[in-house]
Amino acid sequence: MRKLSEAAGLAVLQRGKAAFQTHVKLNFEPAARDCRMCPTPGVCCTDAHFVNVHITRLEAVAIRETLRRTPRLTRDERRAVYARARAAVERYGLRAGGGDDTYARTYSCPLFEPGVGCLVHARSKPAPCIQHACYDNWEDVPPLDFQRQTERRVEQLNAQVYGAAWAWLPTPLWLTLVDPDAGGAELSRLARVWAARRTPGAHPGPDSRAQRQRRSLPVLRI
Ligand code: SF4
Ligand code: SF4
After folding, report:
1. How much is the CA Rg of the chain, to the nearest whole Å?
2. pTM
3. Contact in structure between 136 and 218 (CB atoms under 8 Å)
4. Which terminus of the chain has fewer Cβ atoms in its 10 Å neighbourhood, N or C?
5. What is the pLDDT of residues 180-195, one digit of tens each?
């Protein structure tokens, strides 16, 4: 497999996500409910009984870079995102490894900012979030194949950049690992553990049963 630098991996990742986002926007979103008219905007991101989005190491770095470059975020606002992530990890018991099925745990997403929305909407949104919208009819919901295809490409990119030293983990947990003020010791420790695995990505990936059931469940209000 061809090795890639992290910078090159990030560039390819962003292009792939942008293509997926455009595809969903043009072909499916016209049939979805308008989020601007939503009586409970952002509940799909903050409902701690519903959200179990997982991301990879490369996506976490992409999110960190998006937060770093977003001009409208002050340093305090940026720090508040990482503080929310840390609080979510504690509150919802999000852990890496230890035999836990991390997909069984749900959380309120720290990347949702009331009045603004998803802080990474334009540049580094996770694939299930790109796929998600509220539809009145099941037949209008985008097929999961597109999301899976994007996620397989994301896995391949992680392998090209990090070898086996990455995993699918809940977004808040990844944010604490790539937090620029966290020192990186925990990420280095986990990277050594992951690198020693026989099968890269051995942690349950996007095809796990729990994830299929929960992660991109559309909210239907009829
Ligand atoms: S996706 Fe649905 S729940 Fe979320 S803001 Fe849009 S309309 Fe509201
Ligand atoms: S990443 Fe964005 S769209 Fe996805 S759950 Fe978090 S705030 Fe919502």
Report:
1. 17
2. 0.90
3. no
4. C
5. 999 999 999 999 999 9
